[in-house]
Amino acid sequence: MASRRTFLKYTGATTLTLFAYGKLGGLREAIAQIPGGTLNPLGVPKYQTAMLIPPVMPKAGVVNQRGGKPIDYYEISMKQFAQQILPAALPATTVWGYGSVNGAGSKNALLLHNAPSLTIEADVGRPVQVKWINDLKDVNGNFLPHLLPADQTLHWANPPGGTAGRDTRPTFASTPTPYTGPVPMVTHVHGAVGVADDSDGYAEAWYLPNAGNIPSGYATNGTWYDFFAAKALANYAVSWGPGFANFRYPNHNRASTLWYHDHTLGMTRLNVYAGPAGFYLIRGGPSGDAAVLDTRIGTAAVLPGPAPKDGDKFPPNKTYYEIPIAIQDRSFNADGSLFYPDTRAFFDGIAGPYIPDTDVSPIWNPEFFGNMMMVNGNTWPFQVVEQRRYRLRFLNGCQSRFLILDFSGIPGVEVWQIGNEGGFLAAPVNLTATNGNRLLMGLAERADVIVDFTNVVPGRYILGNVGPDEPFGGGVPGVDFPVADPASTGQIMAFNVVPALAADPTTPPMFLQLPAITPLPAATAVRPLALLEEASAFFADAPAEALLGTAQGDPNVGPAALVKRLWMDPVTENPAVGATEIWEVYNATVDAHPVHIHEIAFEVLSRQPIFVDEANGTVEVVPGSVPTPPEPWETGVKDTVIAYPGQVTRVKAQFATAGQYVWHCHIVEHEDNEMMRPYRIGPVQAAQPQAQPLASLATRPTKLFMRRRRR
Ligand SMILES: [Cu+2]
């Protein structure tokens, strides 16, 4: 049996060829680099396909409220379809994706389902309402099963458990096979600020498709669905029904780059991998493009544009200079189907016994690294760019993979980051001059970047990736960790540079004065929180699950006990409505985790070294150590932050809207197995659901996994 350590050694980029376990566990076949499906990434030609620039999602209409602002209304379903993700000579891929089903509010309405999906365009302060429809049904109206192997031993949505057993970790007399029933879904707009909890896509507010053959006894929606449906009806006079929900977004954010994706309990990794995700761009307001000044003249600057607009023809008959780019890692089989592991053995060779005989889940993998790069829904596409400036809004939409985008293969390019998840930075950051032409992106992070191709000689250039093909722990690429395989995952996309069609009217980034950032009030509370990983009690060197927790006491003044907290445990983070708090995230694991807090945008305050006492289960800030400020690209506000191992990462936020939300790691494999916690702003709500009792973990020993996992 290969140990996890052996596996990770194999993934090193210095290994040209490695042996990976095939589907039968013991069967070995030689494939290149990271193990994956039966389609060898080196057999997939690159730069054959023009990158898709996602068009704008058509509206179903505009709702005029009496005494209120007009509301942009959408009807969006998620369904299954075939998409040519691989180059045209290779088979199409069956995926899921969102798309508008009612374009009555848009001209030239494009009712197109795609993965990633069309972009929702919103304005600051103008509400959006979406009827999100789970349409995972076949032509006969029967449910479609999952495309990917769903592990039933996690704390997950669990529709077969019925009303009493939904949203639990079910017990089994023998190791269960993958779940093949109807698929729960609930959509979250990642980064939405000020949204009411009924509309946040709470992980236990999922719902099944309204299919004709739902097995009797199945729960058709999650624990919180009915409660939130009643709130939505009371607050906005909108109804929810079988297979759909109506969510409302107030768009209280600064102008910024958001995205939407599924958030179902214990299934997010699978539902998102199957395709459903898209951009949600918020524009305007006091922190929007119009508030950016040109310091040479003191008046409005010109940013690269246009972006796609509602009603644009498709394929477009105009050129876009502002483009959202979603980068995701995927693996495929030779028939074009998505590959995702169907056994834990894929990860570290543990071939059982599994739950209930041990504490290791049979299918769930602690992390997953696709062996191909998909950009806006195509593997390794190209984008034609002129010798001028472009505004690219990058999203790291991978599963577990931190990206370090590397522009150094484009001689003459100049790259400036101007924004992150929460909108514009305090000031433009010249990544070319100050960061080696590199852009680090944790999972779910966004980067609003001006890429200047003016001085690039026409030709084809590759955007590289020097992040690792394994968990990230910080450090220098090629020194502290091997970089991604240069032949596959080390390449993202190509830019085909051509002469400019006209003079570039945009303001050079060095002259951009970005809108002022309103500082948050002083904090009234500090919460020490913890990132933990639990080791298997049965297998050596094997993580059983990732966890969140708290530190009891103040690690800033002395050792504080680490306490693990499961999804089902009572809420421990409970800010008052309107409170401003500092959340300190003590990372006691060996890897970096991208921590995402719903509902709010936070300031990154500092990071500082910590000491984890494994024997005593305590953590403290290293005495005498000094906090380091956030990176230049972490200024302004963010919704996701990289928490490095051996450090505390401190953020500050104001919690304005009462309700039940979550905070979690955005490595989706972690999030799905306990690295997510509910939190509540304000008091317990009348009639809110109670946490389900925990069935099977009561006797599991607490054993923190803190050994070094990499050599
Ligand atoms: Cu994590």
Q: Class of the largest domain in CATH?
A: Mainly Beta
Question: What would CATH call the architecture of the largest domain?
Answer: Sandwich
Averaged pLDDT: 92
Which fold name corresponds to the CATH topology of the largest domain?
Immunoglobulin-like
Largest sheet: 8 strands, mixed
Question: Which structural class is indicated by helix and strand composition?
Answer: mainly beta
Query: Helical stretch count?
Result: 7
Number of domains: 3
| Heteromolecules bound | copper (II) ion
Assign the CATH superfamily of the largest domain.
Cupredoxins -  blue copper proteins
Low-pLDDT parts are 1-32, 694-703, 705-711
Outline type = globular
Helix residue percentage: under 10%
Total strands: the figure is 38
In percent terms, what proportion of residues is strand?
Answer: 25-35%
Calculate the terminal CA-CA distance, rounded to whole Å.
Answer: 19 Å
Radius of gyration: 24 Å
Compact summary:
6% of the residues lie in helices and 33% in strands. The chain contains 7 helices and 38 strands.
Secondary-structure map with pairings?
Blueprint: H1 4-10, E1 17-21, E2 28-32, E3 61-63, E4 71-83, E5 93-100, E6 117-123, E7 128-134, H2 162-165, E8 187-190, H3 225-236, E9 244-249, E10 256-262, H4 268-273, E11 277-283, E12 293-294, E13 299-300, E14 322-332, E15 338-339, H5 345-348, E16 372-375, E17 378-379, E18 382-386, E19 389-396, E20 403-406, E21 414-420, E22 423-430, H6 431-434, E23 438-441, E24 446-452, E25 459-465, E26 491-498, E27 512-513, E28 525-535, E29 543-552, E30 560-565, E31 579-587, E32 593-597, E33 603-613, E34 618-621, E35 640-643, E36 647-655, E37 659-665, H7 668-671, E38 676-681
Parallel strand pairs: 4-7, 6-11, 14-19, 18-26, 28-31
Antiparallel strand pairs: 1-2, 3-4, 4-5, 7-9, 8-10, 10-11, 12-13, 12-27, 14-15, 14-16, 16-17, 19-24, 20-23, 20-25, 21-22, 21-24, 25-26, 28-29, 29-30, 30-34, 31-36, 32-35, 32-37, 33-34, 33-36, 37-38
The structure holds copper (II) ion.
